[in-house]
Amino acid sequence: MKWITRERPKIDRIACPWLIKNFVDKEAQFIYVPAEGVKIRAEELNAIPFDIPGVEFSHHEDKCTFDYILEKYKIEDAALHTLAVIVRGADTDRHDLASQASGLWAISAGLAYNIKDDHELLEKGMMVYDALYSWAKHLQKVKHTQNPVDYLFIDVFNKFINEKAAKKKTPGWVKELKEIIQDQIDTNLSLTDISKSLDIHPSYLSREFSKHFNNLSFGDYLRKLRIEKAIELMKANEYSLTEIAYLTGFSDQSHFTRIFKQHTGKNPSAYKKEWAKGKAGTKS
Fold first, then answer.
1. Domain ranges within the chain, ordered by starting residue
2. pTM for the full model?
3. Per-residue pLDDT for the chain (284 aa), expressed as one digit of tens each?
């Protein structure tokens, strides 16, 4: 089958062909064209368009096209699901999702800069995903340093660094970051944009974030605050659930419902009814 997408691929438009070729359609052919011509050429060539807005094989909510293909074809390989988080983090600038996401973005951007032919870029990029898959499948527990004595020194060094760090005051950027998040919680925040306003490298910010924010990643912390704000708005009883989803920065109500249930164990409507019932009970 032919698959078609936008030219000049970097992350999803190389990761997806690798996934399709290895786990969905071994005879797949991939075509890269200017963005405005993808749908037209797809009809002309009887090809499946992917990783563009308004088609089936694309981003959905906070997931990328690689995620959708795994779900669409019910691929249960654990290593692929590990890889999916890395691809999602790199492709959506959410480097807090996986420590490897920043590296994947750096390698992909460098390849695209060095290689101008899209099909040659795809060929070289496939090797990157072959390597990542082998790591996810067989090598996640393997460390670069194999000497037991080296491990001992590393453990002692890490303990020293952690104790030293614990004695330090909270960095000034932490307070500023909390204020930015609180002020813009209902907007489409990203660590990359925030790092620019703080004048801090995004990789450093991603790495250090959880140390100062309750051991939560940036995404988890943001979702926690949004759910807390949603609960406050529910108790005010001035807005519908659809309005609350919008006011707390969720892309749509289904996304809001799913995240709310993950945090509270209940759907928003059930939570709101139980709270209202409990409040009424205290008055009687």
1. 2-139, 148-215, 220-283
2. 0.55
3. 999 999 999 999 999 999 999 999 999 999 999 999 999 999 999 999 999 999 999 999 889 999 999 999 999 999 999 999 999 999 999 999 999 999 999 999 999 999 999 999 999 999 999 999 999 999 988 776 555 545 555 666 666 666 655 555 677 777 877 777 776 766 667 777 777 777 788 778 888 888 888 888 888 888 888 889 889 988 888 888 888 888 888 877 888 898 889 889 999 899 888 888 877 766 55
Cβ atoms of 230 and 207 closer than 8 Å? no
CATH 1.10.10.60 matches 220-283:
yes
Return the number of other C-beta atoms located less than 10 Å from residue 121's C-beta.
Answer: 22
Long-range contacts of 32-38 (CB under 8 A, 24+ apart): 32/4, 32/5, 32/6, 32/7, 32/8, 32/118, 32/119, 32/122, 33/4, 33/6, 33/7, 34/6, 34/7, 35/6, 35/7, 38/4, 38/5, 38/6
